[in-house]
Amino acid sequence: MGSKIAIIGTGYVGLTTGACLSHLGHRVVCADVVPEKVESLSRGEVPILEAGLDELVAEGIEEGRLSFVLGAEHAVGDAEFVFLCLPTPQGADGAADLSFIKAAAREIGPHLQADAVVINKSTVPVGSAGEVAKKLERPDVHVVSNPEFLREGTAVADFLHPDRVVIGADDPEVGKRVAELYSALPGEVLVTDPASAETIKYASNAFLATKISFVNAMAAVCEEVGADVVDVVRGMGLDQRIGDKFLVPGPGWGGSCFPKDSHALVRIAENHGYQFGLLRSVIATNEEQFGRVANKIARFTGGAVEGKRIAVWGLTFKAHTDDLRDSPAINIIRRLLEVGATVRAYDPAVEPGTTDARLAGIEIVADPYAAVDGADVLAVLTEWPEFRDVDFGRVAGALGERNVVDARNLLDGAVLKAQGFAYDGIGRS
Ligand code: UGA
Predict the structure, then answer these.
(1) Residue 108 CB less than 6 A away from ligand 1
(2) Of the residues 41, 214, 327, 402, which has the fewest C-beta atoms closer than 10 A?
C-alpha cells in the first residue's frame, strides 16, 4: 500500500508530481485554489500540454488513487507527506517571491497530522525550509526540500526516469521516509541538508543556462570566423568531460525557470556578499542573443523593420509545450513590434484568438502558410519538428521575399538556398 500524499498546487510541477506519485501506487489528493480547474481535473481534463500526463491523470482517477480538492486545508488532514508545488515568481528585486509558499504553509499548519512531512518541491531560496517551518507553527511536523528537475514537455518521463532524486532533510530518518516514496524509480537518491538541496537546484539550472549562453556566444564567434557551430558542438561534445547536452544554440534560453532562477541565484549570492559576475554575464549574453536574432531579421529588410511584415513560426519557449512564459520568441517579436514591424505568427500549440497579454499586437494564424503570406522575412523561433515538413515550394510562392532566419537551426539551410531562399541560421553561414 502506498503512502498518503497531498499536493498543494496543480501547475506543471504539482500536477505531474501528483499524477506520477499516484502512478507509483500512492494515494494522492491534489489541491488548487481555482474551482473550475479542480472541477475539470476531477473529470480528467488536463489543462496543459504535457506528454503522457492525460493518461496518468485518467489512470489515477479511475483506480481511485488520485483526486482533486479545492483549498489546501482540505487536502492535508490525512496526509503523511505534503508537497508544496506553488509558484515562486521573480520579485521586483530579482529575488524569488515566497508569498504563495508562506501563505500555504500558514493555511495548512493547523490541519496537519503529527509527524507529517512538508516537502518544498518548488524552487525556493536557500533557507526556505526554515521559513516554511516557521509559518507552519508545528514543531511536530518536519520540513524537507526535494527540488524537481522536470523539463516541461518531458516532465512525466523525467519524473519516472530521474538522473537523481535530491532530498534535503535535517533529520536523516525523515530523509529516508521521503526517499521511500521514490523507491520504485531508477536514479541515485542523494540525501543532504536542506540548504544543500536548495542550492543544488539553483546550481543545476544556472549551470545549464551557462552552457547554453556559452554555446550561443560561441555561435557568434563561429559566424565571424567562418566555422559551423553544429560541427563545433559535435566535436566538443565527444569529449566526455563536456558532453553534447544543453549545447544546442538557439534564440536564447527562456521559460518559467532559467530566467527567474538565474536572477534569483545572483540575488542570493549578493545577499551573502558574493558578486556572481559569471552568472550576470550568462544572463547578459542571453539578452544579447535575443537582440542578435532580431538584428538578423532586420538585416534581411535592409537594417530597419519599420513597416515590414515578419512571419514567425513558433511562439512557445520551446517545442512540445504550450507555455509562453519568458519565451525567447515573444521577447524577439516584442523587439520587432517596438520598431514598427507587423508580425503574423503560427504555433501548433497556440490557437488563433488566444487572449493572452503576452501575445498583444501579434496576429496569430492557424497554419504556417497563412503566416508567411506576403511576408518580407520568415523567422523560425521555436523548434517544433513539424516545421521541417512544411512544403517550402509553397512557402517560396507565398512569401513576399524569400528570406529565412532560422533561430533554431531546424531547417536544412543548403536545401533552402538551392530553392532560392536567403537563409541565416545561428552560428553557421
Ligand atoms: C528547466 C530544467 O531543464 C529542468 O531540469 C528544471 O526542472 C526546470 O527548468 C525547472 O526549474 O522547473 P524547462 O524550463 O522545462 O526545464 O526547459 P529546458 O528544456 O531546460 O529549456 C530551457 C530553455 O533553454 C528553453 O528556452 C530551451 O529552448 C533552451 N535550450 C535548452 C537551448 O537553447 N539549448 C539547449 O541545448 C537546451
Answers:
(1) no
(2) 214
